[in-house]
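Could you show me just one protein sequence together with its fold in token form as a worked example?
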Amino acid sequence: MSDATSTNTGMNCVVNVDYETTLQRVTDALKAEGFGVLTEIDVQATLKKKLDVDFRPYKILGACNPPLAYRALTAAPEVGLLLPCNVTVSQVDETHTLISIIDPLAMMSFVPNEDLKPIADEAAERLNRVIKALEAN
């Protein structure tokens, strides 16, 4: 069971699953749609180290679908400033986790190039399926 919403920047989903399990499920769902995780930023650890503050478990995953990235970079090299697609996984409480995924269409709106639209559409479809898969679990 989950609660999904959309914003101007992306899609959000709260699942009734613990943080660590959700983190693995997100990675698996991304992989099923052709995305690998290139980067992983542990926000909780970074804030503790840099600011000595306590923060809830929170990771930023940099997800990339190589064929889509290649097409986008070929069409508009400056699109690299917007890659990879960010996905956040953060603990709400012991049994609930928030997943947020950037909307590729919103990202590509910063680069005025019509050739990017079908690429962003495909990325958005794939990432929407990721959210749907996570909602179903």
